[in-house]
Target: NUDIX hydrolase
Amino acid sequence: MVQKLSDLARFLMKFCSACGHAVILRIPAGDQRARFVCTHCHAIHYQNPRNVVGALPVWGDQVLLCRRAIEPRYGFWTLPAGFMELGETTAQAARRETLEEAGARVELLPLFSLLNVVRAHQVHLFYRARLIDLDVRAGDESLEVRLFKEAQIPWEQIAFRTVDQTLRFFFADRQDGRFGLHTADIESG
Amino acid sequence: MVQKLSDLARFLMKFCSACGHAVILRIPAGDQRARFVCTHCHAIHYQNPRNVVGALPVWGDQVLLCRRAIEPRYGFWTLPAGFMELGETTAQAARRETLEEAGARVELLPLFSLLNVVRAHQVHLFYRARLIDLDVRAGDESLEVRLFKEAQIPWEQIAFRTVDQTLRFFFADRQDGRFGLHTADIESG
Model:
């Protein structure tokens, strides 16, 4: 992913993106929330949470993780994931991020986890996935990619709580012999 | 929901929201996509799809629909749904929209549908829900709210394809006696 997961600065707005004049925070008529509203053209600039979409790629009894080559959490392990782009579906975003960060082609399985990261204004979505082959390699944002059996997972070096949670859901479900959709609310990414 | 579902104008940007100078579309270093980039402070303004979250409220063998008092699709029937706001979870958004549009309090059940509306840059999420009581009333954005048995659903007057699709998934699952998560990609809202 190119955007930083911790990037909250984008939710601050000083000028109107339509006309360039100053904006102020106020509650528009008929609304209940303060919005950035242009003092000149009166455009209302709504802001909404963003989706981070990824995959949990599996090969036999192993899962694929990427070691991050970028901040935040440089050097920590993560599942391939990133911000959903305009013009793509959630499934396309998961496949694209898996290819970009791990050089890996996957067959996507059903959506596996939906995690609200409220303070970061993000929703994280992970699909289970099957690696099509072992032709994987670190992309620009990864130091290395590697397959891990459950006992080998570097739990102390997982980059994000949503990734930790998704992996824990996965191994619990695998133990139970059935996979469902898991939802959870997490305070920080 | 306060924002219009068809509002695509927000994805056009002429001025930098951080410094007020002109932006241009270009591909930043290390990126693969054109972004709005400020000619003065060089801020990159990423844009991402938004989530529309709602509920499918059930009372016995009936489902609750709202008749829209706003455009688009004034006068058509919909499930209560709207844009997810900063600072809330997907479940909180579903409950809030159900209260705002139908005056209804619900117990949320598992997430039921995830629908990509690629051309509108939206992801629609619907939770199944149980109405807590029949104390419902049209909110500001609804002309009326009403309970419908399956045979009474006004299929020709459903406001959005994601609502139509979610209702069809629901009645099919109810027939089968089991509810799952359904995903689909839809070209327009």
In short: Chain A touches chain B through 47 residues (CB under 8 Å).
